[in-house]
Specification:
The structure holds two protein chains of two kinds. Chain A is of the alpha+beta class. Chain A has helices at about 20-30, 35-40, 90-100, 160-165, 175-200, 205-215, 220-235, 250-260, 265-270, 295-305, 315-320, 460-470, 520-530, 550-555, 560-565, and strands at about 5-10, 55, 60, 65-70, 75-80, 90, 105-110, 115-120, 135, 335, 340-345, 350-355, 365-370, 375-380, 415-420, 425-430, 445, 450-455, 490, 495-505, 535-550, 570-585. In chain A, helix 5 (about 175-200) crosses helix 7 (about 220-235). The radius of gyration of chain A is 35 Å and the shape is elongated. By secondary structure, chain B is an all-beta fold. Chain B has a domain at about 15-55 and about 75-180: Hexapeptide repeat proteins (UDP N-Acetylglucosamine Acyltransferase, domain 1, 3 Solenoid). Helices cover about 5% and strands about 30% of the residues of chain B. The relative contact order of chain B is 0.14. Mean pLDDT of chain B is about 85; it is low at about 65 and about 190-195. The chains are: A alpha+beta, B mainly beta. The structure holds zinc ion (ZN) (4 copies). Chain A: It holds the Pfam family Dynactin_p62.
């Protein structure tokens, strides 16, 4: 998701610390972190960083592990399934039976994927009694089932109606009809085959040809044939009393089977003495579809005649239930894929981190442990020139908006980094960044005040009272010359502090051309050429927090309540990488 | 966190403030005022067009004909602390039934942010919805609570967007979910008293601070 500048992403280090379980202890004991981990600067351009950077609102926090938790270090558990179009909850038993698709009237357009509507084709001048016929139509691209020759009698139960009709309006036989038909054809073929065997003995099959002259078996036909074939095979294999439908644990057959699995090897051997190899499907009625080059030839002919425009885009093809189709005329409306509501647990300690209310329409949570309540929010904004800052009393009086999409290379620009503390204890912050940003466009970065304190997140009213008592608390870190003084914070409030960062955006084209170490010309060119997003100025910042917290928070619920009453305080430390997206460097 | 576009230097008295704290730009175009309700502390920025004139025209059984002055019917209702940014158009959805164009009331909840240059014809937008710039929402679409609609998205008519989802693209598709912390202002008790220029509001959260800052 593209975000507007400036933005801040927070890194969850779970991808390179596979010591999740021990890390809980590490934070409190302040054990020394491995050297190489300490030395290494975080590179937001590294491909792996894609998977560890998150906006703050996507991160959770495990209070027991005292660590940030991202999508990858939580376990999700599905609480409910629902259809995004009709917002009906689907019970989990139905999910198993019908799959993760809505079986109501919800369909997506096979062409553009937007939600389809049921529309009436009723002629207003001559209305029919039922108001029909009806079609499914797309309100966005205006594709409708009319184009594949499907109309519905009723405006409800579209799924059932659609499952019975093939494109062009041909009826699709039901499962029962299919079974019956298969038996009939099989018998017929068997009889013919017998006759032929007697007559000639050859296996040439005019009967198969006869079948093929019909429409080739559809995907569903083949599937039902194959599944029926396997069912009969399994039935023939397993003891007579055991049927594949009979899978309840209470039935004697499955009980015997399970006992068999866990019994001693001797009984197993006895069973294995008469292995009958399972036969594979060998005909159309058993679900075997033999590739026929004629169908390919026909397809090519059709593309020749009708052109590419009638064929499907890969995305359209993949969204179809039957992935083997090629033409627009074969499209079927796509039943809506269900969405889920999920709870989240910490992967290392299994504590619940987030649990939404079960109601589909509710956005509330029963439990929600957010990172933004535990780690400071960092935000960056451009600092207008120091001179204009004096008149910065009203937010509306700000100078022409700073263009974050065109940072001027080579010109020192000042930004304010604002940290607000969500904790109820004051925090000592240490910021660190490498002097130049990683990547080909090297920008120089200086945090003018890397060490400072951020006040506790006390009552909101304290701030109001404080500011009314001492309105001139703000002493911008400007020295006599109007220069920003290093080592001084810019401004502070109740639970926030802001410091100045000086950034000198790098040049998109290296000033010293031909200085690269590349051997041959081709390689040099490649080096100089900028990749996509190379003009993006992102500053990795290492944030380390030190604070004293009540023991209560950690021992909450588990420990002896008396201990927490004592009000013991412990020193705690927290550290993480954050990446601040400043903007894009303008070409010179 | 996008900044509303119309915060540039405006002449004094850009907004007319009503008793309930609604701020309506003098440069907005509002037609059919009688059919529009604003919940209070709601901002209508410049060049916004509210089509209150497109209200339901069903002849009510009590009055004889609709040709005479029809009773005031709500065409657009907007909740509290909602911001409609510059250049957006709010047009009640319509459909043709029995040959007559019928308009249906457009309802928008509380703390909804509508970015600049949007065209909204939804039937209902719930609370805490964030709509980025240049979004088109088709007729009768339903946007549930806590939804984020990305820049330039076209929500097709009749689409239902379930709560907590992020939609984008043309036509709109559900491309993700907002994070658990979306709409929760940071710093536990909110970032009240932040430095100048630091946003005191977050997407999908309480927009009171944003409304307050618009002058
Ligand atoms: Zn993680
Ligand atoms: Zn549905
Ligand atoms: Zn479509
Ligand atoms: Zn944990």
């Amino acid at each position: 998701m593209a975000q507007a500048f400036p933005y801040t992403y927070y890194s969850c280090d779970c991808y390179d610390s596979n010591t999740n379980i021990t890390s809980a202890k590490r934070a409190s004991q302040q054990a020394p972190i491995a050297d190489d981990e300490d030395e290494r600067t975080f590179d937001p351009r590294s491909p792996r960083s894609n998977y560890s950077l998150y906006p703050l609102e996507h991160l959770l926090y495990c209070e027991d592990c005292q660590q940030i938790r991202c999508h990858r270090c939580v376990i999700e558990e599905t609480l409910a399934w629902f259809c995004p179009a009709c917002l009906f909850e689907v019970p989990s038993s139905l999910i198993k039976a019908d799959g993760n698709r809505c079986i109501r009237n919800c369909f997506n357009c096979p062409v553009c994927m937007s939600t389809m509507m049921v529309n009436s084709l009723d002629d207003p001048t001559n209305p029919s009694s039922s108001g029909g016929p009806y079609i499914l139509s797309c309100p966005y691209c205006h594709w409708s089932t009319h184009e594949i020759g499907i109309e519905f009698e009723k405006h409800t139960g579209i799924s059932q109606q659609l499952s019975r009709v093939a494109n062009g309006g041909r009826q699709i036989p039901t499962q029962k009809e299919r079974d019956k038909e298969r038996e009939r054809l099989k018998d017929a073929e068997g009889r013919k085959k017998d006759d032929r065997d007697i007559l000639s003995g050859s296996d040439d099959s005019p009967t198969r040809d006869r079948v093929r002259e019909d429409i080739p078996p559809s995907q569903e036909d083949s599937f039902s044939n194959l599944s029926a074939f396997y069912k009969t095979q399994i039935n023939a294999q397993s003891p007579a009393s055991f049927s594949s439908h009979d899978v309840s644990f209470s039935s004697p057959a499955s009980y015997a089977r399970i006992m068999n699995l866990y019994s001693t090897s001797s009984t197993k051997k006895q069973k294995r003495e008469k292995p009958v190899p399972m036969r594979e499907a060998s005909g159309v009625f058993e679900g075997l579809t033999i590739f026929d080059p004629a169908t390919d030839a026909a397809t090519i002919e059709r593309i020749k005649k009708e052109g590419w425009s009638t064929t499907l885009a890969p995305a359209q093809k993949l969204a179809q239930i039957n992935p083997n189709i090629r033409f627009e005329s074969e499209l079927r409306p796509i039943p809506s894929i269900l969405c889920t509501k999920r709870g989240k647990r910490c992967r290392s300690c299994r504590h619940i981190l987030a649990k939404p209310e079960a109601k589909i329409t509710s956005t509330r949570y029963k439990i929600k442990l957010l990172a933004l309540n535990h780690i400071p929010r960092l935000s960056l904004r451009a600092l207008s020139t120091p001179t204009s800052q004096i008149s910065a009393s009203g937010p509306s009086a700000s100078a022409p908006a700073f263009d974050y999409n065109a940072l001027r290379p080579g010109i020192p620009t000042h930004f304010l980094l604002h940290l607000s503390n969500p904790l109820f204890d004051p925090v000592r912050v240490t910021l660190a960044t490498s002097s130049t940003t990683p990547g080909k466009v090297q920008s120089r970065v200086t945090i003018l005040c890397p060490q400072f304190e951020v006040g506790a997140n006390t009552d909101v009213w304290d701030d109001a009272l404080q500011s009314s008592l001492s309105p001139v608390k703000r002493t911008p870190a400007l020295n006599a010359d109007g220069q920003i003084e290093a080592g001084k914070i810019w401004d502070r409030g109740r639970n926030w502090t802001s410091v100045v960062i000086e950034v000198v955006p790098g040049f998109l084209k290296p000033v010293t051309t031909g200085f690269s170490l590349g051997g041959d010309d081709g390689k040099k060119k490649e080096d100089e050429e900028l990749d996509e997003d190379e003009d993006l100025l992102e500053i990795p910042i290492f944030v380390r927090l030190e604070f004293e917290a009540d023991m209560v928070e950690q021992e909450r619920g588990i420990g002896d309540p008396k201990r927490s009453v004592e009000g013991q305080r412990e020193k705690r430390e927290e550290a993480f990488w954050a990446v601040v997206g400043v903007g894009r460097v303008a070409p010179t | 966190m996008s900044r509303p576009a119309a915060r540039k230097a405006a002449p004094k008295g850009e907004y007319i403030e009503t008793d309930s704290g609604n701020k309506v730009s003098r440069r907005s175009a509002i037609t059919g005022t009688a059919n529009i309700t604003l919940g209070g502390r709601t901002v209508i920025m410049s060049d916004v067009h509210l089509r209150g004139d497109l209200h339901a025209t069903r002849p009510s059984p009590s009055t004889g004909g609709s040709s005479s002055k029809p009773p005031a019917q709500t065409a657009i209702s907007i909740g509290r602390c909602t911001v409609v940014s510059t250049g957006s158009v709010l047009k009640p959805p319509s459909r043709i039934s029995r040959g007559i164009v019928q308009y249906y009331p457009l309802k928008i909840g509380d703390n909804v942010y509508i970015g600049p240059n949007c065209c909204i014809s939804a039937i209902a937008i719930s609370n805490h919805v964030h709509i980025a710039a240049n979004v088109t929402i088709g007729a009768f679409a339903i946007i549930k609570e806590g939804v984020k609609i990305l820049d330039g998205c076209v929500v097709p008519p009749n689409m239902v967007v379930p709560s907590g989802s992020v939609v984008g693209g043309r036509p709109a598709r559900i491309v993700g979910e907002v994070g658990e912390g979306w709409g929760v202002s940071g710093g536990g008790g909110g970032v009240v008293g932040g430095a100048e220029g630091v946003e005191k509001w977050v997407e999908g959260g309480d927009l009171r601070e944003l409304v307050r800052s618009i002058k």
